[in-house]
From TrEMBL:
Protein's name in the database: Sporulation-control protein spo0M
Pfam families per record: Spo0M
């Protein structure tokens, strides 16, 4: 009885450890691993074991920035079962990293959170950080932007419920011009919308103020243009140089 009371507050409770096959993934890639569970000092009923792909985003309120953790997607791994004292169990799993997962550049952590739901007890958990790297299609875009002389200045996940497509945030990649468009643009912001067969881009082209009329437009946030682009995987197979020419012509129309 005493051991059961202790387990209810987490002392002598079941333990859980998640081991991932690797630490680096692309959006849409399969994450495989094993969940190891060790029973505590008493018999316990496990209601479920859930994996969640987590990240954090910034939301501004009253001129202050606040960090929020969010589950991009949740996966139920186990059906209910009874875990005996000191019993060891293992469960292999395979989940797919959502296409909405941000790239882990700048201030954008991503981790896999494992939660053990135990009836009448404190729920143990485990967190495993992963690195999310660009898909080949994203890399083509990033290389094309680099060829145009843009340098990545910042990457941040920001609250944008209307743009998030199932999540309450978007990841904004902010680039500054260093050569071709220097003196014409303040910055170029890029948002990726990835899917298995295509890559959609939302570009925010921020023109540099020139003269009093342009300065007024900039002060009123009227100097920004938004452009949506869609590229199939076959389109992007032409490579970064072909895409750089297209983007250069596009940007030139807005400066």
């Amino acid at each position: 009885m005493f051991n059961r009371m202790l387990a209810s507050i987490g002392v002598g409770n079941a333990k859980i450890d998640t081991l991932l096959e690797k630490a680096r993934y692309m959006p849409g890639e399969e994450i495989r691993g094993v969940i190891k569970i060790r029973g505590g000092k008493v018999e316990q009923r496990i209601e479920k074991i859930e994996l969640a792909v987590m990240t954090e985003y910034i939301r501004e309120s009253n001129d202050q920035k606040h960090k929020h953790h969010v589950a991009i997607e949740r996966f139920n791994i186990f059906n209910p079962f009874v875990l005996m004292p000191n019993e060891n169990r293992e469960q292999n799993f395979a989940i797919r990293l959502p296409h909405t997962a941000p790239l882990t550049i700048g201030r954008a952590p991503v981790w896999v959170k494992t939660e053990l739901d135990i009836r009448g007890a404190v729920d143990p958990g485990d967190n495993d950080r992963i690195e999310v790297v660009p898909t080949p299609q994203m890399n083509t875009v990033l290389e094309a932007i680099n060829l145009l002389g843009f340098r990545l200045r910042e990457a941040e996940c920001e609250y944008a419920s209307k743009l998030g497509r199932g999540v309450p945030f978007v990841q904004e990649l902010e680039f500054v011009p260093t050569t071709q468009f220097r003196g014409q643009l303040d910055e170029l912001e890029v948002i990726f919308y990835s899917s298995p067969n295509e890559l959609e881009l939302l570009l925010q082209i921020d023109r540099k103020a020139r003269g009093f009329r342009s300065f007024f437009a900039e002060a009123m946030d009227m100097d920004e243009s938004f452009v949506r682009l869609r590229y199939s995987n076959n389109d992007l197979a032409a490579g970064p140089h072909a895409l750089a020419h297209q983007l250069a012509d596009l940007i030139a129309r807005y400066v």
